[in-house]
Amino acid sequence: MRNTKQKNLVLEIINNSCNHLTAEEIYMECKKVIPNISLGTVYRNLNHLVESYKIIRIKMKDNIDRFDKNVIHSHVICSECGKIEDVMFDFIKKLPIIKDYEIMNYDLIFNGICKKCKEKEN
Amino acid sequence: MRNTKQKNLVLEIINNSCNHLTAEEIYMECKKVIPNISLGTVYRNLNHLVESYKIIRIKMKDNIDRFDKNVIHSHVICSECGKIEDVMFDFIKKLPIIKDYEIMNYDLIFNGICKKCKEKEN
DNA sequence: CCTCTTATTAATAATGATTACTAATAAGAT
DNA sequence: ATCTTATTAGTAATCATTATTAATAAGAGG
Fold first, then answer.
1. Within window 9-68 on B, which residues have Cβ closer than 7 Å to strand D?
2. CATH top-level class of A74-121
3. pLDDT tens-digit profile of A55-71?
4. Which residue has its C-alpha nearest to nucleotide D24's C1'?
5. Testing the interface with B: which of A73, A104, A106 to mutate, by most B Cβ within 10 A?
6. Class of the domain covering B5-69
7. What pTM was estimated for this model as a whole?
8. Domain boundaries, chain A
9. Which residue is the nearest neighbor of C26, CA to C1'?
10. Nearest one of B83, B77, B53 to A98, comparing CA atoms
11. In angstroms, what separates the C-alpha of A52 from chain B's closest C-alpha?
12. CA A36 → CA A45, A69, A87, B29, distances in Å?
């Protein structure tokens, strides 16, 4: 895996963001620095960075992936409006031993209804 | 939400299967009973059943969703071959209290490398 | 510093899982 | 039985993501 300014930029954008960015959003941020960067390049580097555990991919119900720093934490997603937030609490203290598998990490997503949507319901 | 033989069939197929079926696989099973059932009908009912917590949706890296019974358990997925298996252990004893959210359930996926892929690597 | 190999890139086309649309049908309430 | 409307079959459209290709640039090894 080679070092490129495109790959470094994608990683830097994700590490410096507090949001859970989509590929399209990362692409727009990249263009501010490298105006002619290609969307395909962003997608390819996102895949590389996920595979090398530099970032994490969050699979959303709307089929638009989001990307985040690889810091141990979980997420809570509102089933109603799709809002996603970090949950900074270690529900799983250490990686479990699962027969016939070498476990690298885990994805934990809590599904629920946020305050705003709850109020709208009533 | 109305009861239809199509919706009941989709639910029955998922509840009677030990695998994590794709929409296409469920569609093929449905056709054995209702030959002219539409793929769109399967997708619509899958969405209804997920929204009403009758089944769960598993978002996969290959962007092909899989569906499973709504019984509390987790999954382990091989990053190499994509194989998915059940993990019948309650890592999270009860749903946590998260500020500003009413939590309904959670999705927990362990990522790792299976025995077969590990052996292939060496 | 210079090759040389080959991973990476920009630009664009293609893919395919899922959703949208529409007229016909059938739940199930009254 | 009638009526409303959610659901259906069939088909077309969507669009996030991947594939393709010729040109470029890491970075290894002289």
1. 34, 36-41, 44-45, 48, 63
2. alpha beta
3. 999 999 999 999 999 99
4. A4
5. A106
6. mainly alpha
7. 0.94
8. 5-69, 74-121
9. B4
10. B77
11. 11
12. 15, 25, 36, 48
CB pairs under 8 A between A and B: 94
- Could you tell me the distance in Å between the CA of residue A7 and the C1' of nucleotide C5? 21
Alpha carbons B104 and A41: distance in angstroms, whole number: 38
Reported as a single tens digit per residue, the pLDDT across A71-115 is 999 999 999 999 999 999 888 988 999 999 999 999 999 999 999
Q: What's the rounded Cα separation, in Å, for the pair B114 and A73?
A: 24
Contact B96 A89 (CB under 8 A): yes
Q: What are phi and psi of A116, to 5 degrees?
A: -60, -45
Question: What is the rounded distance in angstroms from the CA atom of residue A45 to the CA atom of residue A14?
Answer: 12
> Which long-range contacts link A97-101 to residues 24+ away (Cβ below 8 Å)?
A98/B76, A98/B87, A98/B110, A98/B112, A100/B114, A100/B115, A101/B76, A101/B78, A101/B110, A101/B112, A101/B113, A101/B114, A101/B115
- Distance from residue B16 (CA) to nucleotide C27 (C1'), in Å? 25
For residue B8 the two structure tokens come to: 């009941």
The single-letter code of the amino acid at A23 is: A
